[in-house]
Amino acid sequence: MDNKKINELKKQFSMIADINGREDFLNSSILIPLVFMEGEYHFIFQKRNKNIRQGGEVCFPGGRIDKSDKNSLETALRETYEEFNIRKEKIQIIGRLNSVFSPVGVMVDGYAGIMDIRSLEDIKFNMSEVEYIFSVPVSFFEKNSPAKHYVQIKAHPSVIDKNGNEINLLPVDQFNLPKVYSKPWGNSKYAIYLYKYNNEVIWGLTARFIIDFINRLKKS
């Protein structure tokens, strides 16, 4: 991918998007960082510090949207500064990708941005949150499709607490709902995408954002 492709890619993005019911989920935002190195663009990934939530996983910089953030783009830029120590003035946003919803109740907005740096050594990452960083050429994802697996998703109208008591979440009888909803229902499969690059596994929501980016790139 070169600068000509970047300019064409901008046409594939829209900064206007939202999702009905967003307020019911944990909302977060990420930056998909791009750096021009060795004659082409690379994605920059981080390995999360093992002592924090989802420790040891590969992801892009980002985090929960705070009430003080004006919008999710501001969240992505703030989190990138906190994790990579790269100020927003050094990042050129080229567009917003489709938001990704996780069945575990997380909604993630994603923005692609070019970092004005020369190499990974310019990123002084926060070691309390990031174990290490690495780059992967965008061309790798253009040439290699992800592995695809599935998990099964069901809706549970009740749960069992730590004392073994059943907690009724959906009052089926009270609202005279069909009896079928008094037991777990649904048999949906949720696709899990995975890329393997050297010794790193890039998967889950991160992989979904990459797929979205590559699909837009191929249309450019």
From TrEMBL:
<dbReference type="Pfam" id="PF00293">
    <property type="entry name" value="NUDIX"/>
</dbReference>
<dbReference type="InterPro" id="IPR045121">
    <property type="entry name" value="CoAse"/>
</dbReference>
<dbReference type="InterPro" id="IPR000086">
    <property type="entry name" value="NUDIX_hydrolase_dom"/>
</dbReference>
<keyword id="KW-0378">Hydrolase</keyword>
<dbReference type="InterPro" id="IPR015797">
    <property type="entry name" value="NUDIX_hydrolase-like_dom_sf"/>
</dbReference>
<dbReference type="GO" id="GO:0010945">
    <property type="term" value="F:coenzyme A diphosphatase activity"/>
</dbReference>
<keyword id="KW-0460">Magnesium</keyword>
<dbReference type="GO" id="GO:0046872">
    <property type="term" value="F:metal ion binding"/>
</dbReference>
<keyword id="KW-0479">Metal-binding</keyword>
<keyword id="KW-0464">Manganese</keyword>
<feature type="domain" description="Nudix hydrolase">
    <location>
        <begin position="25"/>
        <end position="198"/>
    </location>
</feature>
<protein>
    <submittedName>
        <fullName>NUDIX domain-containing protein</fullName>
    </submittedName>
</protein>
